[in-house]
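Researcher: Hi, I'm a grad student and pretty new to this. My advisor asked me to get structures for two proteins we've been looking at. I'm not sure of the right format, so I'll just paste the first sequence and hope you can take it from there.
Model: That works fine. Here's the first sequence with its structure tokens right after it:
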Amino acid sequence: MGSMIHLSVGRLEIDWGKNSGFTDHSGLFQAADVTDVPYYYAGSEYVDAAGKQEWKIRVEKKEGLSKKLSEVSERIELLGYTLNTCRQEFMSLADLNDFDSEVFRFDELHKALATVDVSAIALDYGDGDEDFGEFFREQIFPKLGMEMLPADDARRTLYNAAEGMENLSSHSVLRLLADNPNAADLPVIWTYKDVEDGGWAKHGEFVQPLQPPNKFLIVAEGSSDAAILLHAFRLLRPHIADFFSFVDMEEGYPFSGTGNLYKFVQGLISIGVQNNAIILFDNDAEGVFGHERCRRLNVPGNMRILRLPDIESFRQFKTIGPGGEHTSDINGKAAAIECYLDFGDQGVVKWNNFNEGAKTYQGELVGKDRHKNQFLGQKSRAIGYDYSKIESVLDLIVTNCVAISEAQQIEYLETHF
């Protein structure tokens, strides 16, 4: 019979394989997701009260990978599967399987998957699982209003669309289901143990680090920036933290200052670097100047030039300089990474020099090392600590990383369908 392997959301089977023939879904998970998960097997035949013969399902707990769908969906987007990517794949399948995408529309499929009750799948269904092709025919298609079509058109559309949906990638199915509020907390489960025990693959093929092509190199102005960002991802977004790598700081940070960072970006572009990269400047006078210089370069599609975001509360910030204490807008003048941490109402910026390139004064947060060290010392989310500003930085990074991967995935679909 062979060894089976399944990827599922709750009880809904999204993908399956047998022996050595399976899709690598390791990128959806992390090592911390290894746990005991249910494996479903067809058991002995029994006769119910109505005299109908059924197969009784046998359930065993074995090692597998499990992560809730809401967290898996963020990893899927970083792998390039956004709604735009799902739409592109859908349109490609419509052409390939000859169904009318104006009759069976992507938006209708999205809406149906966002409202269907995935958790209602019966535990005694078939041999223990319901795959997506069957799920589409029985539970999604009736939601699309096809009964209003002439019978022949409905049957033809159903047949061709069902053929196409059986080939919809598991990443797209998961991304579309992720917009279903009733499915967000369901576990995405990969049951690999039978294939491993059968000798068809090694444990390291299922539980492994994220592959380098899927990672993003984050390069900021200094070691403090990198340390804060690394800690912020691990503390606030641990389920996607492994997607981001930072320059090794153990032997000293080689790109301190906007001038060196500009030269580094020039070097990356000149050698045609293949890594996905985010270049992040501070939101101060030097950072704004460096950001604008880099944006004028011929930046490739696998790179984004960013600066820390403007923050509304920075528009009325306490500052001190030769003219005394004032309330000033520090966006674009003094908002380095430490300003995005929480320091209550104790934040003060001191103006220190005039930046000729930006034609404005450069400022620095007073006591920035103390605020940085307080944040880096946190082992978990601290009650009462305001993470909103540093979260906005993470949002900026993630959004641009998703855009890079989305463009790459859409290009792949356009050239391979």
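Researcher: Oh nice, that was easy. Here's the second one.
Model: And its structure:
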Amino acid sequence: MLMFASISKRTGKDDHEDVRLALTGDQAAFRRLYLRHVDALFAFMMQFGQDRETVRDWVQQAFIRAFAKLDQFQERSSFKTWLFQIAINEMRQSLRGFVMDSDHIDDHPQLEQDQIEITDWISLRDRIRQLPERPRLVLLMHDVEGFSHLEIADSLGITESTSRAILSRTKHLLRERINL
């Protein structure tokens, strides 16, 4: 776990440097930012998308908006948090008026269970899909993507303690519903 934390910190420093370079017009810095985050953003957004093409559009739009507004990025948060917030907003705009239905939950072991039987995993995936948007976002951002509660709070416009409470209630509810 310490190794992961040091990688995350280094990536954050790399991101901040690449943002500064991109602001000067350095195309290679734009490319590094894109390549560093596109796969994680796509995987995260697949939790909410109905199909791969829709998710590709959200991811593309998120990067277009992020790069267009790069001068508004403040280094008080990580670039990843800022980018994911833009992507979430893009998704919300796209889905306004529609019921969200996620078809893909990747097998991520961070859900406090070392081994989950396949039937339990299917049940968990189905229960996660049924969660309202905010609890689903908090759960996936924290347990799948590894965002801190402070980063989640900044992204969703809630307090850090609200993020913790939502996560706790959501996990409790999921455990009850699938008897983990």
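Researcher: Is there anything I should tell my advisor about the second?
Model: You could mention this: The two ends are 24 Å apart (CA to CA).
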